[in-house]
Amino acid sequence: MPMYQYDTHDQAMVDARVAEFSDQVARRLAGTLSEEQFRPLRLKNGLYLQLHAYMLRVAIPYGTLNSRQMHMLGDIADKYDRGYGHFTTRQNIQYNWIKLEDTPAILADLASVGMHAIQTSGNCIRNTTADHFAGAAADEVADPRPYAELLRQWSTFHPEFDYLPRKFKVAIIGSDTDRAAMRLHDIGIQVVKNDAGETGLKVYVGGGMGRTPMIAPVIREFLPPLQMISYLEACLRVYNRYGRRDNKYKARIKILVHEIGADEYRRQVEEEFAHILTLGLEPPPAELERIKGFFADPAFDTQSADTIDRSDPDFALWVDQNVHAHKAPGHAIVTVSLKPAGGIPGDASADQIRLLADLARDYSFDELRVTHAQNIVLPHVRKADLYAIWQKLDAAGLANANLDLIGDIIACPGLDYCSLANARSIPVAQKISERFADPARQAEIGELKLKISGCINACGHHHAGHIGILGVDRKGTENYQLLLGGSEGADTSLGTIVGPGFSEDGIVDAVEKATQVYLDRREDGERFLDTYRRLGVAPFKEAIYG
Amino acid sequence: MSGERVKILTGNDLLTGDVTWWTGNGWSRHIADAAPVGDDATQIAQSEEADRKVVGAYVIDAQSDAEGLRPAHIKERIRALGPTVRLDLSLRPNDPAASAWIA
Ligand code: SF4
Question: Are residues A511 and A422 in the same domain?
Fold first, then answer.
């Protein structure tokens, strides 16, 4: 199975954490810990107090999990929650209705399948996110997950980085196509090859979304992979030393890199790096090789048919939209969209979660991925099995053929669940996906990434949406700002606010008007984003506000 | 908005995390049971938190009229009801007027 397997050390660490937290919960319930004392402890275990109940965020490091783990996620939804879970833009899952007294049992259930809620909260290095097609994509230079796993081992419980000025997010990719919004993270890493054919890492530092969105500049063009830990240690040390602990809004590394400039930040990192290299912190080459061994290709059936019978038109539509090229002949990558028209983006019922687990077991070498766009990937599927998979998905309401179309909306939980929210996100997503429910209309519009956040924290990545929507509180009323021109990936850009905000219905109309400008003015082969970039904001503004 | 402006006390149940409302002599999941809290809110919140009956108690503004209590801010109305996108899981699952109460 192409997945990292916990060794006894990893498992002992997770088990010890369960025992520790069980004790902390017992002390809280007995009154020997106050909420003030308990709060940081529960947050270290992914347990938040949200709008309606406790919310548990479960880590899915680099978005990879096996069918047993996925099955457990479905069972937890049934046993301890209300029969569903929410997949997030951080490639995690959240449960919305958790009882404090149940959390030790949930963590024990998770630990039994090598899962936990560590690094899902607090000012630490959070779980590394990664390209959800890692190890499968036809365009990949190298699988980034061994590096992500190395990062996990280095960063988990790293005492020096447990109380950083703010949370810290790392994303890693292994292709030129950036499917992980890599440059919008505190650190983005791309596995590359140099002219000599050697593998290395290109390191970007200082990106992020939130209140002050920034695109990370390149800080290191080419880093020998075995020096990754030392280099990141240096990046973090410079941040830990100078990051603004006095002001929450200026505490992210992006502010530091912006204020001192990429060149000065690079200079300081290189100085620190030179020092750290003398300490011999790097894992031995054999350790990286050992980790790589876990991610070796499964036994692909390369004799399997390389063609797809497209005689069922609905199936053909889904193949065109949701199936991507795989590196192995006869195989394909399936993305299951969790975005039915009128549905809640990223939500899946316990039954759907277990079905996806079963499909992974039966058809995808036991493996699944969670995407930052709140969808699920079956990474290694035989083309010959696609029709059977599609039929099973269809029967479960999971055959939405809308990947990367206007119906494939990213939306954060917003004011329906989140205590930080200013406005609801989900109802806006529902109204837009209903307005554009006609598959022919979605196909006509083509690629359009629409992203909605319920507040400036930008969990819904609104800055990076071709169309972005930001919910704000205008004198106690929900109001929605429209942004255009954002993008993640190789052509990362930040959206700009078009003008005054709208009501919930008004923002849906505004989105429709923006798409109409595109349809009227597009030139051959242009996506919405291309037309917007060519024309600028003026015609869109005129159509929307004129 | 018509009706008398009152202050009520809310928080979450320690064990279940449920939204709860101070009734004058205890806590209820239903805002209809809430009672205006008067000047003693801080003291009630402190002693109830110390007794582990509630977490993070705080005072909010609400309107009181013939139809009952309605929080002034939409966030508190959603807390009082449940997620508007899953009314089946809310406290008024079969009430067609529930959405209008939020708006
Ligand atoms: S963007 Fe705001 S409202 Fe949405 S989940 Fe994040 S913090 Fe909550």
Answer: yes
Structure tokens at A56: 């548990």
- The CB density around residue A359, as the number of other CB atoms within 10 Å, is 25
| Average pLDDT score over residue span A504-514 | 98
Q: Which of the 8 DSSP states describes residue A217?
A: P
Chain A contacts of B88, Cβ < 8 Å? none
Distance between CA atoms of B81 and B79, rounded to whole angstroms?
A: 6
Please answer whether residues A151 and A168 qualify as being in contact, where contact means their C-beta atoms are separated by less than 8 angstroms. Answer: no
Beta-ladder partners of A282: none
Provide the pLDDT for residue A516. Answer: 98
- Distance from CA of residue A424 to its chain's centroid? 20
pTM given for the model: 0.96
Q: How far separated are the first and last CA of chain B, in Å rounded?
A: 12
Tokens representing residue A451 in the block: 């992203």
Task: Write down how long chain A is.
Answer: 546
On whether residue A225 sits in a domain, the answer given is: yes
Amino acid of residue B98: A
HEC string of A55-98 equals EEEECCHHHEEEHHHHHHHHHHHHHHCCCEEEECCCCCEEEEEE
Indicate if the pLDDT at residue B40 is higher than 60.
yes
Check A49 against B73: CB less than 8 A apart.
no
Strand partners, A125: A168
- Check pLDDT > 70 for residue A118: yes
d(Cα A212, Cα A252) in Å, to the nearest integer? Answer: 10
- Give the type of residue at A352: Q
Residue B85: CB atoms within 10 A of its CB come to 21
> Minimal CA–CA distance to A295: which of A173, A114, A145?
A145
Q: How many CA atoms lie within 13 A of A535 on its CB side?
A: 24
Tell me whether residue A127 is in a domain: no
Count of C-beta atoms within a 10 Å radius of residue A283: 16
Query: What are the residues facing A323 on neighbouring strands?
Result: A334
Is A324 within 8 Å of A133 (Cβ atoms)?
Answer: yes
Query: Nearest C-alpha to atom 6 of ligand 1 is from which residue?
Result: A459
Q: Residue B52: closest CA among chain A residues belongs to which residue?
A: A31
Residue A533 inside a domain? The answer is: yes
Instruction: Note whether B17 contacts A427, CB cutoff 8 Å.
Output: no
Atom of ligand 1 nearest to the CA of A455: 2
For residue A119, give the H/E element and its range: none
Q: Letter for the amino acid at B9?
A: L
Structural domain harbouring A494: 410-545
Q: Is the CB of A471 under 6 A from ligand 1?
A: no
Contact yes or no for A172/A146 (Cβ under 8 A): no
Strands A376-382 and A367-370: antiparallel
Q: How far apart are CA A456 and CA A444, in angstroms?
A: 32
In-domain check, residue A303? no
Structure tokens at A78: 């049934």
> Mind listing the pLDDT tens digit for each residue in A374-407?
999 999 999 999 999 999 999 999 999 999 999 9
* Residues A281, A157 share a domain: yes
